[in-house]
């Protein structure tokens, strides 16, 4: 996931302020995800559940990322696709519903874990985090397809 965002930043970075900010949020989201999942190369101890504060921070960044996509980036892309061609508009119309289904999974995760505290038993956390990771990976791929289409076919 981190490699994907680095490639996206190299390819599209600096071309649009909203997309730059969004890709930076994506990177922050992935780094926190990896820390929570126990992928940190700096932490060699046995995997333990993250602290509630870490989960809450992750959920906040997740919601910020989803919101930026739906209320800033996708609107810009949709407007560009509408004005530039039917093929691009059809691509956007095909991809947006698939992105929306990933939003539902992310919102469910947030609803379940955003307000956890130390006393909560998080028996399903690792599985839910894994499902979310797979969902985010699929979402990033779809988003990158939209962004690539926008910049490949519509730069003026």
From TrEMBL:
InterPro entries: Rsd/AlgQ_sf (IPR038309), Sigma70_reg_Rsd_AlgQ (IPR007448). The keyword Transcription applies. It comes from the Bacteria. Pfam families: Rsd_AlgQ. Keywords: Transcription, Transcription regulation. Belongs to the Rsd/AlgQ family. This is Sigma D regulator. The lineage of its organism: Bacteria, Pseudomonadati, Pseudomonadota, Gammaproteobacteria, Alteromonadales. The gene is rsd.
